[in-house]
What we know:
Blueprint: H1 14-35, H2 39-67, H3 73-97, H4 101-133
Helix pairs in contact: 1-2, 1-4, 2-3, 2-4, 3-4
Amino acid sequence: MAYTLTSDLVTNNSMIDTQHKQLFDAINTLLEACSKGQGRAEIGKTLDFLSKYVDKHFSDEERLQRQYAYPEYEKHHKFHEEYKKTIRELQQELNQNGANIALVAKVNTAIGGWLVNHIKREDLKMAQYIREHQK
């Protein structure tokens, strides 16, 4: 199942939406590799991308939140820190055990499920707040 940035996931913040699309593209690349039996070969690249992506994307989002005094900044930041920890743990597992099917499945679940839920529950709310408070 490919992930698509559907209208219900669009924040109408061009920076955030562009970055979310990059993440969806990375997930879809991994899913496509899995469908061809090449998930283990792709997992390292995906985790490298995710590690860099979460640092940049979360930093950008949190900068916006601070700029507009988003009242749920601390809660949102905590979600980001938990997700960064998840990515670090997945990287650690890759380094310790190598690429395997179980890790590929964990990454797909961790990325896809978390991403869609986080966008729907948190990012849309944050983006609406920012739109309402832009001068």
